[in-house]
Amino acid sequence: MDTTTIVVLGIIILAVIVIGLVLASRSGRMRGPALKTLPPESRERYVTQWDKIESRFVDSPNDAVREADALLLALLGEREHPLAEDKLPNEMRRARREAVGQEGKGGTEGMRQALLHYRAVIEEHARPEEREQTKGRREIAS
C-alpha cells in the first residue's frame, strides 16, 4: 500500500466514526429526557390523587380536568421533566387540546377524552408496572 491509499482509508474510517457518533447523539436526544425515578411513596400519592380526580369527573368534569392537568405538571416536575409546552408528553398536549375542544369534540365528551389522555400519562409516569396490564383499557368507570 502506498501513502495515498493509507491516508484515504484513514479519512474514510474517521468519517465513519464521526457519522456514527453524530447518529448516536441524535438518537439519544430523540428518546426524550432522562427522568428521575419516583420513590414508591410519591407514586402512591399520585395514584391516590388520580383516583380521586377520576371519581369526581362525573359530578364536575371541568374541575377534574383542571386538577388532572395540575397533578400531572406536579408529577412531571418531581421527575425533573422539562415543563415547556413543546416538551410535554404527547398525550398531555393532546389532552389539553381535547379539553378545550380543539380536537373536534368539545364539551363533556372532549373532557372525557382529555381525562383518558391524562390517564395514559399517569400510567406511564406513576404506574409503569401497570402500564402493560391496562394497555387496552380506554374507558372511565363511573
Which parts are unreliable, with pLDDT below 50 for 5 consecutive residues or more?
A: 131-135
Ends distance: 78 Å
| Structural class designation | mainly alpha
Helix content: 55-70%
DSSP strand content: under 5%
Characterize the structure shown:
The protein is mostly helical. The chain folds into 2 domains: 1-31; 40-125, no CATH class. It has 5 helices and no strands. It has helices spanning 3-30, 40-56, 61-78, 90-99, 107-125. α2 (40-56) runs antiparallel to α3 (61-78). It is elongated. It starts with a helix and ends in a 17-residue tail after the last helix. The model is unreliable at 131-135 (pLDDT under 50).
What does the secondary structure layout of this molecule look like, with pairings?
Elements: H1 3-30, H2 40-56, H3 61-78, H4 90-99, H5 107-125
Helix pairs in contact: 2-3, 3-5, 4-5
Concise summary:
This protein is an all-alpha fold. It has 5 helices and no strands.
Task: Please supply descriptive tags for the structure shown above.
single chain; 142 residues; mainly alpha; 2 domains; 5 helices
